[in-house]
Design brief:
The protein is of the alpha+beta class. It contains 2 helices and 11 strands; from the N terminus they run H-E-E-E-E-E-E-E-E-E-E-E-H.
Length: 247
């Protein structure tokens, strides 16, 4: 029968359906592959972002640590300061075979702090007419000694006002080092001496010390620290001298 040798229309429908199914499967496969690739790329991007974020975090932490170390260094540096507890005045002890300069006086102090003392001002005050001059250890003048005059209480911060001639000297003292200044007095007899050191970084401005000195006719100098006096103390800080006004 000829009719049985030709494909039925249902066969065409079935074939078409099969082709469509294959196309849909192919498209689905492509979409799945593309989605998988996109997912892989997304995962790589996420990992890169996570890695970058971790690096940024570590860099920020390192920067924060550096900033903290710098802050600590600055704080520690600001806390450092020079320290001079007291000024000592004494006569110059002669050495064997070496003659000591007449009417000589030594003023010394030590920087016991943890920061150098820079551009401090040492003021040496004596009775008017004392004619002091700065010298080296052997009594040789070390330059001009300009004099000025002032009035302060003496002895001590509560003593009576009296006139003084004074000389000044700028001093720089490294940590742990002592400073020595020598003066030669141009008169004989007993008279008042005050030495005071000033620097803004020193406690209450710096220390001062009062003594009386006796210069014999031979030029031999004796220092009296007035330790037996009952109206002392005769040493302190510059702030002590500034608390009371002169009448």
């Amino acid at each position: 029968m000829l009719a049985g040798t030709y494909p039925l229309w249902t066969d065409y429908v079935s074939a078409f359906g099969a082709v469509v199914g294959i196309l849909i499967a192919a498209i689905a496969l492509c979409i799945a592959v593309s989605s998988a690739n996109d997912a892989a790329r997304s995962a790589d991007s996420a990992k890169q972002i996570a890695d970058a974020s971790e690096k940024t975090r570590k860099a920020a932490e390192a920067q924060q640590k550096l900033a903290e170390l710098e802050r600590q260094r600055i704080t520690a540096n600001e806390a450092r300061c020079p320290v001079v507890e007291r000024i000592e005045l004494s006569d110059v002890v002669p050495r064997i075979g070496i003659e000591t300069a007449p009417a000589a006086l030594r003023i010394g102090f030590t920087n016991t702090g943890d920061r150098p003392l820079t551009d401090a001002v040492l003021t040496i005050m004596l009775d008017p007419g004392s004619a002091p001059e700065l010298t080296d250890r052997w009594g040789q003048p070390i330059g001009d000694t300009p004099l000025d005059e002032t009035t302060e209480r003496w002895p001590g911060a509560n003593g009576l006002p009296r006139a003084f001639d004074y000389i000044t000297r700028n001093v720089n003292v490294p940590v742990g080092v002592s400073s020595l200044t020598y003066i030669r007095v141009g008169r004989r007899g007993r008279f008042a001496v005050r030495a005071k050191l000033f620097h803004a970084d020193l406690h209450e401005g710096g220390p001062w010390t009062d003594v009386a000195i006796e210069v014999a006719p031979t030029g031999r100098t004796t220092v009296d620290d007035m330790a037996t006096e009952v109206s002392g103390p005769f040493h302190g800080t510059d702030a002590d001298l500034d608390r009371g006004e002169l009448p």
